[in-house]
Specification:
The chain has strands at residues 3-7, 10-13, 18-25, 30-39, 46-51, 57-59, 67-72, 77-82, 91-101, 103-108, 112-117. The chain is mainly beta and 118 residues long.
Length: 118
Amino acid sequence: QVQLVESGGGLVQAGGSLRLSCAASGSGFSFNAMGWYRQAPGKQRELVAAITSGGRSNYADSVKGRFTISRDNAKNTVYLQMNSLKPEDTGVYYCNVEAVMVVSMNYWGKGTLVTVSS
């Protein structure tokens, strides 16, 4: 079974920074794409950023230039550095991982709350 442990959410003022981490584990699994999604109150969950095992990344237009996704393949951990935070970045941030053992499956973390005050 795959486990995802997220950390790093919290309350920050507009213009501030936060760093999210998500550590994946699971005996016999390898991890391909890893990413972060967010869900604001009353809105659908949306992709924030994702990164392949080779390091290629993509971002939502709303966070380009402010957020940076990275990963440590040795630790099976993905990070999201969030700078210049805005109130509209508020939401629950979920880690998503593509885990492979014979077949590929997607797993979700429990989510971590990010609140940006104005």
